[in-house]
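User: I'm putting together notes for a lab meeting next week and I want to include a structural view of one of the chains we've been expressing. I don't have a solved structure, so I'd like a prediction I can at least talk through. The sequence is below, exactly as it appears in our construct file.
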Amino acid sequence: MKIHIDIDCTPEEARAFLGLPDLQPMQAAVLERMQARLLSALDSLEPEQLMRAWMQGTLPGLGPESLQGAMQGWEQLQKAFWSQMSAAAGRAPDKS
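Assistant: Thanks for the context. Below is the predicted structure for the 96-residue chain, given as structure tokens.
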């Protein structure tokens, strides 16, 4: 034996029938706060603001010492690149 029941109602009507609370006002408030926080976070992604925070060391793990380490790593990469290119061109690599 099979019983098939079709109920035609809106989600609001079903929620009220089952005694569930209406969470739409709370959801709207939470979404509004999230939107405000996301928009304020986007302001910190502007290149000038990001560089200022980086140089002041206010970003976690990205202080001036990490910038100096990154520059040293870049210089080493550049020297390795030029020595490989010099060797490929048949010249002695520059010692500077």
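A couple of points you could mention at the meeting. Residues 59-96 form one domain. The chain has two domains: 9-43, 59-96.

User: Perfect, that's what I needed.
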